[in-house]
Specification:
Blueprint: H1 2-14, H2 16-26, E1 33-35, H3 43-49, E2 55-57, H4 61-72, H5 78-92, E3 96-98, H6 106-112, E4 117-122, H7 125-138, H8 144-154, H9 164-168, H10 174-191, E5 197-201, H11 209-216, H12 245-264
Parallel strand pairs: 1-3, 1-4, 2-3, 4-5
Helix pairs in contact: 4-8, 7-10, 10-12
């Protein structure tokens, strides 16, 4: 029996299109959703909402970080990336795939998985910055992969006096974090058609079950609304509070204003303060 299983497994590895067809018959998906909000925007909460389905949170995230680096540095073609995304999908075969790094492949995902739907959880600049800084301060990167991912995402500016408390704590500067907020959200908005993308503020996840369910075509009663907000803010040192709020507000306006205005023009964000200051 083991030899038969190995033979079947080997055949499916060599014939990926057959493998996907077999999976679609034996384990059909009711929907395929990618939640691609940035870190600290509710990706854990969204995965929790889909607890009754095959869902994952940041699965194979550091493998995808390697792919991001290769793509940004020009070593990975779109076709090679598409092949990796299909291989990843076959291995995980999720209905809800909530993973921040997949945002940087959203253009390829939309092309390769035409039935897939997407969510972009968005958090206002100030509370997002406070949360990501708290997270990095209280949970330092422990592996080379974590360090490399954070440096590539947030380590793009040297910073000024306002960022001194962050630098003293071994973190990146305010401009580096805010620039990433802009790049992440802008790339997703540029890559995906409105008809396939649900943009949802983090603070509105609870109470938006009907909209989320409608986006993927299921009844809202099947979502586990009691599992939202599963990743609360750490109650430790809050370094951003050591920076004058008006200094942060100036940086948000200088770096993020076009993206803020673009987000706030969306119907789903009507009345939402995407600056947060």
């Amino acid at each position: 029996m083991d030899s038969v299983k190995r033979a079947i497994s080997g055949f499916l590895e060599e014939h990926p299109s057959v493998s996907e067809a077999v999976l679609s018959v034996l384990r059909p998906r009711e929907f395929q959703l990618y939640n691609i909000g940035a870190a600290k925007t509710g990706t854990t909460s969204i995965a929790g909402l889909f607890g009754r389905f095959r869902r994952g949170h940041e699965r194979r995230i550091y493998e995808s970080a390697v792919q991001i680096a290769a793509r940004w540095d020009g070593y990975l073609s779109d076709d090679e990336l598409a092949a990796w995304l299909h291989e990843r999908d076959r291995r995980l075969w999720l209905e809800c795939d909530s993973c921040q790094t997949l945002a940087w492949f959203s253009d390829i995902l939309a092309r390769e998985f035409p039935e897939a739907r997407f969510m972009l959880t968005v958090r206002d600049c100030y509370s997002w910055l406070r949360s990501i800084v708290d997270h990095h301060a209280n949970k330092p990167a422990l592996s080379d992969a974590q360090i490399a991912l954070r440096k590539r995402f947030y380590g793009t500016h040297s910073g000024d006096a306002a960022s001194a408390p962050l630098r003293e704590a071994g973190l990146y500067c305010i401009e580096g974090y805010l620039s990433y907020w802009v790049r992440h959200n802008t790339f997703v908005l540029d890559s995906l058609p409105d008809s396939r993308l649900l943009v949802l503020p983090t603070q509105r996840i609870s109470g938006s079950e009907a909209a989320i369910a409608a986006h993927v075509g299921i009844d809202a009663s099947r979502l586990k609304s009691d599992r939202s907000h599963r990743n609360p803010r750490l109650k430790k040192r809050h370094i951003l509070e050591e920076v004058p709020r008006e200094a942060v507000a100036e940086k948000i306006d200088a770096l993020c204003r076009p993206t803020i205005d673009r987000l706030q023009a969306l119907p789903a964000l009507r009345g939402y303060d995407a600056a947060g200051v």
